[in-house]
Specification:
- By secondary structure, the chain is an alpha/beta fold.
- It is built from 24 helices and 15 strands.
- A four-stranded antiparallel beta sheet has the order 3-4-6-5.
- The longest helix has 24 residues, at 248-271.
- Residues 5-12 have low confidence and may be disordered.
- The structure holds arginine.
- The site of arginine has 10 residues, from α15 and β12.
- Arginine binds at residues 143, 146-148, 183, 185, 339, 342, 357, 359.
Length: 600
């Protein structure tokens, strides 16, 4: 890529691919400068951050900690670095440097650089090609969704699905090979009660019409009956024992119940456009628990305590008295046992370099103990250890500040919630565009309704609770899906109205001049840093906040700068800003699992 100065002379040939990740590139240039300045490079770390836009585009902060460690003057260190950087045409051709405060180096890019950057990354493929270096070579198993079978999914389940899917998409975009694994709870005590009721009170028609609804009804009925009557409880236990001993009839019924459950779940997953590679639930690991007991005993990690097999982690205050129980005193395996077997399987079978499990925050202790135990176990058995992350989330609250419930006090079914959102979106879309064809109303409403729910779930920091509000999530103003979808559709309409193709010839573009142009260009480039921080923290709200800001920067630009003007240079560069804003909005939304619309 060539760099032209304002006068149009060739300044420098820059390999722009290196500049995709501006922070990383600056880091490597700063390190080279540090070497040339004879700094102690094992002490110096460049520490590049975005700068306060009043002072620059990026900041190198490494001089201060370096000087502190070596007890020298930070401003002098910064000056030495700047002197060296100023010898390097790779940086001088694109930026000006200045020193601020106790040795911060501010970098201000020239507007040619912004233009070059935007012209180097024009398509989703261009972005992906560079982004995919971030996580190249990683194999990640993401365990999300993961409900318990024979129950409806309710509102709360949306979180595990939507957050998990966004994480998968981000990881894939950044180059990882992702396995989407739904670790359903498909084994254990509930089956005794369910089978008891199934054999006596099944409504066949209901089972055909709404399998999950009927199974849930039966399970609840069985639980209630067992609660009320000791003899019934005993019958339920017998049912469970039969299943656990592999009685062929019990196994056949269990299989049927699971198939029905998974079919019911898939209906909602399809609606949400979420597709799993496998459903390796708790039952899949039931024959593998023996290895867990053996190995944990052989390594001395597990010990008998009050009849149970447990693992203590005395170095952690919290778990010193509360051990990780891996076999109950009645000899049965539990959630901990199957999860340990699951860790082993993911390491051996999937060769996972990372494992991510998405659940609500009530399981925090369980996963901390699982991680501690796995670390010790894999270390002692010389296994490579996947990096484990428990991605947890808070609750969805109603207006009353309590976890959300339906009017009758029952949990709201997820399916009902999604359809209600589509219905509400339909009324809004129809109100806004009375002349549009009915088919189009429906199509747009489906996308808006589903996106609105997803986005409402992704945009708050996942670890906090959030209050569910139809008015807020379906609003066309504020940090919402309808607002962002509308922003994207509006950019498309600029091209449509002007009769310009998205693949227009941008050769005439001149460097950006107005404040809004430069602010928007800078915002578009920020996507790279946002991908990094989102993937590092596994917090999709960071991407949401960014997309909202991007849409805002676009609005500010569009309100102040006419795009379709006579000057070919100005028109081309403004069309570039429009097209790239749209591109990054689309990429970002699709990483959140949201489809964009051409018009709305
Ligand atoms: N089925 C569990 C639940 O509904 C979540 C499972 C999460 N995954 C795991 N490997 N434990 O809470």
């Amino acid at each position: 890529m060539r760099l032209l100065s304002r006068q149009g002379t060739l300044l420098f040939r820059l390999p722009m691919q290196d500049w995709f990740d501006v922070a990383k590139k600056l880091e490597s240039l700063a390190l080279k400068a540090a070497q040339r300045a004879n700094l102690e490079t094992d002490v110096f770390s460049p520490d590049v951050h975005p700068a306060d836009p009043r002072f620059g585009d990026a900041q190198i902060n490494g001089a201060l900690p370096y000087a502190k460690r070596l007890k020298t003057n930070p401003r002098e260190i910064a000056q030495q670095l700047v002197d060296q950087l100023n010898q390097d045409p790779e940086i001088t051709s694109v930026a000006e440097l200045s020193i601020a405060g106790p040795g911060f180096i501010n970098i201000r890019f020239n507007s040619e650089f912004f233009l070059m950057w935007l012209r180097a990354f024009t398509t989703e493929e261009d972005f992906q090609a560079s982004a995919s270096r971030i996580f190249a070579g990683e194999r990640v198993v993401v365990d999300y969704g993961s409900p318990n079978t024979a129950k409806q999914m309710h509102v709360g389940h949306i979180r595990a699905i939507v957050i998990g899917e966004a994480i998968c998409r981000l990881l894939e975009f950044c180059g990882a090979k992702v396995t989407r694994d739904n670790h359903i709870g498909d084994w254990g005590t509930p089956y005794g009660k369910l089978f008891y009721a199934y054999k006596r009170y099944l409504n066949k028609t209901a089972l055909e019409e709404d399998p999950l609804g009927e199974l849930e009804r039966l399970y609840k009925l069985g639980s209630r009956l067992a609660n009320d009557d000791e003899a019934t409880l005993e019958e339920c236990r017998k049912e469970l024992v039969k299943l656990q001993l592999g009685d062929p009839d019990a196994i056949a019924l269990w299989k049927r119940v699971n198939e029905l459950s998974i079919d019911g779940l898939k209906e909602i997953y399809d609606l949400l456009n979420v597709h799993f590679d496998c459903f390796l639930g708790e039952s899949f690991y039931r024959d593998q628990v023996g290895r867990v007991y053996e190995e944990l005993q052989e390594t001395g990690l597990a010990e008998e305590s009050e009849g149970a097999l447990v693992v203590f982690h005395p170095e952690h205050k919290r778990y010193a008295k509360q051990p990780f129980i891996i076999r109950k005193s009645d000899g049965a395996s539990n959630y901990a046992t199957t999860d340990l077997a699951t860790m082993l399987y993911r390491q051996e079978h999937f060769k996972a370099t990372r494992v991510i499990i998405v659940t609500d925050d009530r399981q925090k202790d369980h996963f901390e103990q699982l991680d501690l135990t796995t670390k010790k176990w894999f270390n002692q058995t010389n296994r490579s250890r996947p990096e484990f992350r428990h991605v947890m989330f808070g609750k969805i609250m109603g207006d009353d500040g309590k976890p959300i419930k339906s009017r009758s006090g029952d949990p709201i079914r997820l399916k009902d919630l999604v359809y209600e959102s589509i219905d509400r979106a339909y009324a809004i879309v129809k109100g806004k565009n009375p002349d549009m064809a009915e088919e189009e109303h429906k199509q747009i409403a489906t996308t808006v309704g589903i996106s609105a729910i997803k986005y409402a779930d992704l945009s708050p920091n996942r670890t906090s609770n959030y209050v569910f509000s139809w008015d807020k999530l379906l609003s066309f103003e504020g940090n919402t899906a309808p607002y962002l979808l509308y922003a994207a559709a509006r950019i498309q309409s600029i091209f449509r109205k002007a009769g310009v193709s998205m693949k227009f010839d941008d050769a005439a573009a001149t460097p950006f001049e107005t404040d809004e142009e430069i602010a928007l260009a800078r915002k578009i480039m920020e996507i790279v840093g946002v991908l990094h921080s989102t993937i590092e923290t596994l917090r999709p709200h960071l991407l949401c906040t960014y997309l909202f800001e991007l849409a805002g920067a676009f609005s500010a630009f569009y309100n102040a700068n006419k795009v379709i003007v006579d000057d070919a240079g100005i028109k081309a560069r403004r069309l570039i800003l429009c097209q790239r804003s749209l591109l990054v909005l689309k990429i970002g939304l699709s990483l959140l699992g949201i489809r964009t619309l051409d018009r709305m």
